[in-house]
Amino acid sequence: MASSQLAAEGRVNEAWTIAEQGLASFKSLGHVGGEAKMLLALAELCRLKKGLGDSGVAPLLQAQQFAAEARAMCQAAGFKTLEASALLELSVLLCADSCSVQQALQGFHAADDALKLFQQEGDDHGSGMALQVAAGALFAAGEEAGAEFGTWQKKADEALLLFRQLGSKRLEASQLLCISKLHLADGNAKAALSPAKEALVEFRNLGAKDVEALQCLVEAHVQLGEAAQAVEAVKESLERRPGESDLEAQATMLELLMSSLAAIPGKEEEAAACTKEAVRIFQQQGQDSSACRVLLATSAMHRKRRQFDKAINIAQDALSAAQKSERPSKDDIASALQSYSDACLAAGKTEKVLKVAEGLLSSSQHAGDQASQAAAFLVSASCYLESRDFSACAEAARSAQVSAEQAGLGLVQAKALLLQAKSGLARGKSKAALLSAQRAQRLFKQAFDRPGEVEAMVEVGRAEVLQLQTGIREPTQTAWESVARGLQTARNLAKALSDTELTAAVLRLLATVQTALGELEDASKLTQEAAQLDNQLGRPSEPLIQPSAGVAVFNGRGPAAARETTRLSLVPADGESQEPAALDDGEFQKGPSQLIRAAGGELVDARSGLVFEVADRLDSSGHPRQILTRYRRSLGRTVPVSGAGPANLEYFATC
């Protein structure tokens, strides 16, 4: 079909004209099959237009209408195979971009209906494709859908088996690639490794492009902490190709090499050289979006290493590349602006970023540009969060989410939801924060944005911890253990990303959970590990709990928590802090005291015998602080610790 050939060459507008002409011709002839095929061609072209940077949800909605119309026509005419093809296209469209769980389930049912039709017609190829699409839809729908309709892994394996029975190596390789991608998106790099290797071998044997399979292999190695093996795989692939045979593939491999080297300490200069060459080739080939992507990754790398000037300059280059593209992508522009904002905020240049955002918002509102408005609101929200204006942050983030949804920018929507979660937590609104963080996590996952997904997982953990601490959710051991499992997954993913700041945040939060579970030794190790990472980042450490020879020592700093008769918070004992108040019940007097570990593992005040537990609370300004929460009971005596004297840390308790 001429329109398909033109679309494959990137000439979408020409292909659209031909498909429209074909649709009109078949309609005039009353040829139902031909008319349905043209409708499906138009639906596919809508998807391509969306992928090429058309903003808004209109292209996808229009595509869904085309596919639904084609399906209805074929169903009425009894064209089962063509009806199944229309159902598959509809399923893909329903699961595109930032689909909801409901849309993903609708997509699954459409693919399942297509599977039944293909099976009735004895079409194994079509059945395999339907299973492949159904697996993707189930993945997008989440675990609950998998429990009801079968896991995505089962559907994917069934598709692979069918393709192998057909003897099609190309289809087999493509399905292996799909399986690897889904495992990576599911956070299971170990399971993704084998199918990625198999797919890479099959594509090479077929003489087909193997870059996507190599990408999966590299990402799996990096996530597993095997960056050296990732580097080796990329270099081996580069050696297999003549220098000028496929410049775009070569640039992509250099990008992969850059990301792999960036995960290895001491390889910064080599990674920078790869970046420079990859950007040069992409720009030479007119692939401005790809060049922008590489620059953004490089800017993020420098920002994490606190090389803020470099991060800002490279983000500006990325923004310039995105804006000067022949087909400017709203997603790229929004991402570049956010990267520039992140770098400036990290460098303490909040006012500068806010002025840029205000200027962009004014011009975009005048032009009715929803995508740019979303980007401007998002940057403003980030600035307000940095300056601790949480109400303004929440308002700007909500505006960003609305504009992003209207513009069809799923990633911007996810970032806006993440900022809503952070501002909500800072104001103690754990329920709303949890919902926002969970939605953000799902959107990041759908977009294969692993750093964003992990950051959202951290905010989910914060919200869950706050609910358990404040009694919104019953603080049972099972509940705490569930939170711990989620945070342990986040920790592994953050470490795989070599994200020191994110890893430290997860460790501190996980330490809080372990403390609530009574695992104080594990909590201490986690907080000490977090402190080491803080030192690497050049920032002061958070409070630590340090057990030593059976004695629990708490190093507190910062303002006291909100005063309640059943809550204690430690403040520095150096006399520079606010004057502590005495407890209402007179159990304590002003002055130093000591905590010791009782035989049963409890933390006990050496003078009064009161029993304490360590927990996290928000203080009056919304800051998380580790505090000692007094149980509503007293041992009535001091229990000596075998083999250890009392802790010699002085502390003040304020109620």
UniProtKB/TrEMBL annotation:
Record-linked InterPro entries: TPR-like_helical_dom_sf, TPR_rpt
PANTHER family: RAPSYN-RELATED
Protein name: MalT-like TPR region domain-containing protein
Organism: Polarella glacialis
